[in-house]
Design a protein that fits this description.
With 603 residues, the protein is of the alpha+beta class. It is built from 14 helices and 32 strands.
C-alpha cells in the first residue's frame, strides 16, 4: 500500500503564452522523467496546433518522482487546458489536485484567464503557490507583478518565487516549495471505490482510455466497475500510471492518478467529471460537480466540393472519438448544398475543429456565421410551449412568438488604463450591462460586464484587441438565459426568401444590419437582364432595400437610321421580355455572396 504522505497531485494554471508548457518541460527534465536527448519543446503538447499557438487544447497527466529532505516523493502533474472554452474540463482537472502553481508572466502581468482559473482553483480549496515566470526577459517587471499578486491573493510580494522556465532558474526551489506546501491526498483505501474521470481519449485498438484520480477505495485489474452518471458497467481489463507513456500496474488506490482500459467502445460513456465505483460494492454518493457538457455555439460546416460530403462526415466522426463535447447533425442549404450543423463549446473550440478538418483531413470547408441557442416561447392552438432554436431558419413564425430568451455571459476584461474608454464603448455597443471596475495596479484595470453571448461569438475578441492595441485580455463564464427583444431578419432576393442569409438580431439593430447586408449582397450578386430588389424584412415589414440595376442590352444597335417607330417597337418588345423574365426567372445566389456576409463587419 503506497504511503499517501509522499504523493503530491498538482496542476499549473496560467494564461495563454505565460510559459505553462515550458515549465512542464523543465519539471520533466529536473525530475529525470525524460532525458535531454528525448526532450522536445512543449513535450506534453503533442498536437501541431498546440505547439504553434502556444496553447494546451487537450489536458495531459504525467507522474514524476523527486527527492526532497531525503524522501522520494511521487508528483502527479495534471496539465489543464487554459482557455475559457474548456472551463468545465479545467474545473474537473483541478478537482483531481490538492495544489496549483499560479504562473504569471513577468512582462505581461496578470491577465483575464489567470484570474478566472484562480477562482476555479480557490473554489476547489486548492493550495495556491504563486510563481512569476520569464524573469530573464529584458522587459520583465517582476517586482510590479509580485505586488499585483499580493493585492490579488494576499501572498507577501517578497515571498513570491521568481523563476525562468526557459533557463531553469528557480525551478528546483519551486519543486521543494511545492512539496512543502501542497498537502498530500486524503482518502480511505478501504472505503468503497470513488474515482473521478478528468479526461478520456479514444484508442482505435483498445476503445476509450479513461484518465482518473482515485479519491477512495482500491481498483484492481479485472474488477467490475460502474460509471455512476449512466450506470454503465465494464471490466477493468488494464490499469496503469501515466509516465511519458502508459505503464501497467495491478492496482490503483486512494491518491493515485492513472488510466483505466475496459473495452469501452463509446467515448460518450466516459464523461469528464463522472465517478467510477465498483459494481459489487458501489459508493453511496458520486464526487460532486458532474455536469453534462453542452455546446454553446453552433455553425454550419459545408464542403466546398459537394463530393466531399462523406469525407467530412468521416472526419467529424473521428474528431468526436476524442472530443465528446463536439456534436453534429446533417443539414442542407439551398446555397451551399449538403453539410453539417456542428455544436462547439465556444469560439476557440470552433476554430480548432475547423483547422483540424483542413489540416489533418485535407478538406476544403465553408463555415457559416456562428449562432447561439435561443429559447423561444410560442403559442400553438392555445397551448404554450418552448422551442430551442440554433439557426435562423428554425425561428417560429413572427406572430406565434410570445417571448425570446438568449444566453448571457459575465465577461472579465483586463486592460491597460489608456484603453478603458475604447473597451467600455465596445461593450456598450454590444448591449453590455456594466458590472464593476477594479484596479489591479496603477496601470491595469479589470472591467466586469454582462453581455449577450450572441454579441461576442462573432468578432468581439478581434475588435477588443484592435480597441486596446492588443493589450486587453478577455474571459467569460455563462450566466443564464434572459428575455430579449430579438427578431429574425429575413433577406428577400427578387421577393423570394433566401433562408441561408437570414439572421437573428436585436430589434434596435435590425435596420442597421439589414442595410449592411443588402448593400453587401448588391455588390456581390451578378447583375441580371432585369432589375432585382434585395430587401431585409422583419415579418412582413421591410426595414432595408437595395436594387441591383438591370444589365442593359442595346437592342437598337442594329438600327442605322429610318423611322423612330422602328426603335420604339424594339424597346417595347424588350420591355415585355424583361417583364416575362422577371416573372419566370430565378436568381442563383453565388457562394461568394454567402461568404461575403461572413466578413460584413470587417469593412
Amino acid at each position: 500500500m503506497p504511503d499517501l504522505s509522499t504523493i503530491r497531485n498538482f496542476c499549473i494554471i496560467a494564461h495563454i503564452d505565460h510559459g505553462k508548457s515550458t515549465l512542464a518541460d523543465r519539471l520533466l527534465e529536473r525530475t529525470g522523467t525524460i532525458t535531454e536527448r528525448e526532450m522536445t519543446e512543449q513535450t506534453l503538447d503533442d498536437m501541431d496546433l498546440e505547439r504553434e499557438r502556444g496553447i494546451t487544447i487537450k489536458s495531459h497527466a504525467v507522474r514524476m518522482t523527486h527527492t526532497a529532505g531525503g524522501t522520494e516523493h511521487t508528483l502527479n502533474l495534471i496539465d489543464t487546458p487554459g482557455h475559457v472554452d474548456f472551463t468545465y474540463e479545467v474545473s474537473r482537472a483541478l478537482k483531481a489536485c490538492e495544489g496549483a502553481l499560479l504562473l504569471v508572466d513577468a512582462a505581461q502581468g496578470i491577465e483575464a484567464q489567470t484570474i478566472s482559473n484562480l477562482w476555479l482553483a480557490l473554489e476547489q480549496d486548492l493550495e495556491i503557490i504563486p510563481v512569476i515566470n520569464k524573469v530573464d526577459l529584458d522587459v520583465a517587471r517582476p517586482d510590479e507583478v509580485a505586488q499585483s499578486l499580493e493585492d490579488l491573493i494576499g501572498e507577501p510580494a517578497e515571498d513570491i518565487l521568481q523563476i525562468s522556465a526557459k533557463t531553469g532558474e528557480g525551478v528546483d526551489e519551486m519543486l521543494d516549495m511545492m512539496i512543502d506546501r501542497v498537502p498530500p491526498p486524503s482518502g480511505d483505501p478501504d472505503a468503497p471505490l470513488r474515482a473521478l474521470i478528468f479526461d478520456s481519449i479514444y484508442d482505435s485498438y483498445r476503445g476509450s482510455v479513461v484518465y482518473a484520480r482515485v479519491f477512495d477505495g482500491t481498483l484492481e485489474q479485472g474488477d467490475a466497475m460502474e460509471f455512476m452518471s449512466n450506470n454503465k458497467q465494464y471490466d477493468a481489463e488494464e490499469l496503469g500510471i501515466l509516465r511519458m507513456g502508459r505503464q501497467q500496474v495491478d492496482t490503483l488506490t486512494a491518491g493515485d492518478v492513472g488510466y483505466i482500459i475496459g473495452s469501452i467502445k463509446d467515448i460518450q460513456d466516459t464523461r469528464v467529471g463522472d465517478t467510477i465505483t465498483l459494481a459489487n460494492n458501489p459508493a453511496e454518493d458520486p464526487i460532486p460537480g458532474f455536469e453534462e457538457v453542452k455546446p454553446m455555439v453552433f455553425s454550419g460546416i459545408y464542403p466546398t466540393d459537394t463530393d466531399d460530403f462523406e469525407e467530412l462526415r468521416g472526419a467529424l466522426e473521428k474528431l468526436q472519438l476524442n472530443d465528446a463535447s463536439l456534436t453534429y447533425q446533417a443539414e442542407s442549404s439551398s446555397a451551399l448544398g449538403f453539410g453539417f450543423r456542428v455544436g462547439f463549446l465556444g469560439l476557440l473550440h470552433m476554430e480548432i475543429i475547423q483547422e483540424r478538418l483542413e489540416r489533418e483531413f485535407d478538406l476544403d470547408i465553408i463555415t457559416t456565421v456562428p449562432n447561439v441557442e435561443y429559447h423561444v416561447d410560442v403559442e400553438e392552438r392555445g397551448e404554450e410551449k418552448t422551442v430551442v432554436v440554433d439557426k435562423p431558419e428554425d425561428m417560429p413564425h413572427y406572430g406565434d412568438i410570445e417571448e425570446v430568451r438568449e444566453p448571457y455571459v459575465k465577461a472579465d476584461i483586463i486592460t491597460p488604463s489608456d484603453y478603458i474608454g475604447n473597451v467600455i464603448a465596445l461593450c456598450e455597443d454590444r448591449r453590455g450591462e456594466y458590472g464593476s471596475q477594479r484596479w489591479l495596479d496603477s496601470q491595469t484595470v479589470k472591467l466586469e460586464y454582462e453581455l449577450p453571448l450572441a454579441e461576442i461569438v462573432f468578432d468581439f475578441y478581434d475588435t477588443l484587441k484592435s480597441a486596446s492595441r492588443g493589450y486587453a485580455s478577455f474571459d467569460y463564464e455563462v450566466l443564464e438565459y434572459r428575455e430579449s427583444d430579438l427578431v429574425k431578419l429575413s433577406i428577400l432576393i427578387d421577393e423570394n426568401p433566401a433562408e441561408p442569409l437570414s439572421t437573428i438580431v436585436h430589434r434596435d439593430k435590425a435596420h442597421e444590419v439589414g442595410r449592411k447586408l443588402a448593400k453587401k449582397l448588391k455588390d456581390v450578386i451578378p447583375r441580371q437582364l432585369y432589375e432585382v430588389p434585395i430587401q431585409a424584412s422583419i415579418g412582413r415589414r421591410i426595414v432595408a432595400r437595395e436594387t441591383i440595376k438591370a444589365q442593359r442590352k442595346d437592342v437598337t444597335a442594329k438600327c442605322y437610321g429610318g423611322d423612330v417607330t422602328r426603335k420604339r417597337k424594339l424597346l417595347e418588345e424588350q420591355k415585355e421580355g424583361k417583364k416575362r423574365m422577371k416573372q419566370m426567372g430565378e436568381i442563383d445566389v453565388p457562394q461568394e455572396a454567402f461568404l461575403a456576409i461572413l466578413d460584413m463587419d470587417e469593412e
